[in-house]
Amino acid sequence: MTNKEYESYYVPSQSHWPIVGAIALFMIALGAAHYVTDLSKEQNGYGGYLLLAGIALVIYMLAGWFSDVINESLAGKYSHQMDNSFHQGMSWFIFSEVMFFAAFFGALLYLRVFSVPWLGGAGNNAETGAVLWPDFVAHWPLLTTPDGTTTSAMGWYGLPLINTVILITSSVTAHFAHDALIKNNRKPLKVWLGLTIVLGIIFMSLQILEYSHGYSEEMRLFLTSGVYGNSFYLLTGFHGMHVTLGCIMLIVMWFRILKGHFTPNNHFAFKAASWYWHFVDVVWVMLFVFVYIL
Amino acid sequence: MTTDVIKETSHDDHQNDHHGDHKMTGIKRWLYTTNHKDIGTLYLWFSFIMLLTGGALAMVIRAELFQPGLQIVEPDFFNQLTTVHGLIMVFGAIMPAFTGFANWMLPMMVGAPDMALPRMNNWSFWILPFAFGILLSSFFMESGAPNFGWTFYAPLSTTYSNGSTAFFVFAVHIMGISSIMGAINIVVTIMNMRAPGMTYMKMPLFVWTFFITAYLLIAVMPVLAGVVTMVLTDTYFGTSFFNAAGGGDPVMFQHIFWFFGHPEVYIMILPAFGIVSTIIPAFSRKKLFGYSSMVYATSSIALLSFIVWAHHMFTTGMPLFGELFFMYCTMLIAVPTGVKVFNWVATMWRGSLSFETPMLFSIAFVILFTIGGFSGLMLAMTPVDFQYHDTYFVVAHFHYVLVTGSLFSLYAGAYYWLPKWTGNMYNDALSKWHFWCSLISVNLLFFPMHFLGLAGMPRRIPDYALQFADFNKWVSIGGFAFGLSQLIFLAVVIKCIRGGEKAPAKPWDGAAGLEWTVASPAPYHTFSTPPPQSDIDNADQHSH
């Protein structure tokens, strides 16, 4: 290949957004650290405000940063190679998210296969069981912990099953939206994407409803009621945060589509949001199987 | 070669006009920069400041251990010192230093105009100082700094936390975000930005090692984020992941932590392999022996690093099958590592060697890293590890691989590329002083620790039994000498930046690589148009 065929790679000039983002992350981390520390000491502090201000600054930073990127893209500064960088960057980001959830799924597996049975005396731990908590019976879901805290399990039928159907459907509608975008059918694109967003919001609402059932005196599924509830809230909680983030991404895409952005050949942001949406969907299916059913 | 240099420089000038972006001056240049060389410089300076900070903490540790009894610090503060020393050296000194090398060298080595995602590159750097600001500020808080060891084992970091856990957790989250973004940038740069004609197996081995390291980072930093999150909820929100009373298990913490932690130690050594594999051929005036086997060995080490984590936990009472599995897998790593050491030696074999400072540090690396590797093999044997566990033998082992391994490779690389970075040659005499003082003092510092550990001196203690007094005195003297020797490096670098003999585009006659086809100092923008195929072929490390 000679140099003449080479498309130049756009290297942006200086940008102030990263340092704004760095200050925002600093505020979030410092605010959150103060907030939880004060919470544990039951005292009031400024941590919560700092945290919220940091989140606001991150949103401001993302809006500014992405609008720079969008303007550069609309101005035709990006080459095919740049598009590849974005695609690969997003795929590796999603891979890092997969590993984040893998840590939690690994913890769930360890709790179920090793720690709870061992506490009940399995393996070479008969003595441990007899000496420490002789009355403890190992079972999953762990409804009575070794120190005697009781709770109840979340069934898989009802809300979780409905939510599974909703989220899988939303993945399908997201795919139809993408398909419509590639075929340049703008109207079905708006409808399918809008439907995806609505399904996402319904999913989140039902999750909140489910949490309110769990976090009641009736079910007593609290953060303090042993590792069953812990792993339940950890996995569904982080999944919920990711659904919220994915939903926000899709809403941004919807408004950009209303403004006439994206062409059948050039719609990386849309693809990224839709990849992310499929990713949270797959995580949910795993969750449904390992947290709820099994 | 000279004509190429001139041609390339003129290309760059032309490209600069074309882009219309000029180097800003003052603080804004560094805060807003998207230039991989600027960001590389920031990473390198930051990591050196962190090295001196972590080193200062180590000086206090060695002063306390100079003689038995409690002289200088309280035991709890001693624990804070060892914890923060470890965290700073791992996450603040070694890792960012390698990222600095990646930023400076990768785009030039693959013939790319910059890193693939330049703005994100700036973000990954600038969040780091804030993270360490949070971590270090905890020294001045009521709670004190983290005192649970850099491995923050539960329940030390949860039930028995001194109240610093939240600051620690959120600081680590930011460090993790920084590493992940940096790693994504490295992977995408290498996959997508290579000059046309540079196939994967034509990449310098340096590029390969950073490529594989970046994969490890993307795979395991999120796991670290996961485990610190569980530590946070256990400490502040009443969960029981690492508490047996609620059905959890403190040993589960260790499993998840070391699933991150073992690949992490390779994250700190694989790039060192890359640097040494660049320098030894240059000063042996030969091609690297066994380039392909180096690529496969690095990949094997990276893959094996995922299935050896529990060798850090032999004494936790794992089932016998686990002990055996992790012992054998760990020993397997000696095979690809042995391939590497063999290849370095074979590269030097019958080469026409010369001993410039980068080469001295590289040869020291090969020998001393191998000592660290051998003590690692000893620790890999489950039954003997029962005795060595948590003793100074472990401290000796990982300081041999991290100080005389990683840090020495960083020095080797810094001396090798300083002429390219600054445009000036470093002061040769002073650099040799740095090398010899470091080499002698580092061995005085860490070698006796093997004997202390074998004799049973536990790690992470401010006081010790009288029979360890003599060795500890010498270790401390070695420590102070090593600490002072690093100031020589600071002097060399400052002198080199301010002036000195002008460096030609390629100051090392045996060096290969695209970075030597551009002028010294490297122009602000390089390879805005890709290098010619002939340059890529010349840089090829394969021996034909």
Radius of gyration of chain B: 23 Å
Q: First CA to last CA of chain B: what distance?
A: 21 Å
Name the poorly predicted regions of chain B: 1-21
Compressed to H and E, one letter per element, the order of chain A equals: HHHHHHHH
Give unreliable regions of chain A as ranges. none
Largest sheet of chain B: none
- Radius of gyration of chain A, in Å, reads 24 Å
Oligomeric organization of the protein chains:
heterodimer
The count of helical stretches of chain A stands at 8
Largest sheet of chain A: none
Measured as a percent range, the helix fraction of chain B is 55-70%
Give the overall shape of chain A: globular
Helix content of chain A: over 70%
What is the count of β-strands of chain B? Answer: 0
Mean pLDDT of chain B, as a whole number?
94
Which chains share the greatest interface?
Answer: A-B, 72 and 85 residues
Which characteristics define this entry?
heterodimer; A: 294 residues; mainly alpha; B: 544 residues; disordered N terminus
Question: Summarize this, please?
Answer:
With 294 residues, chain A is mostly helical. Chain A is built from 8 helices and no strands.
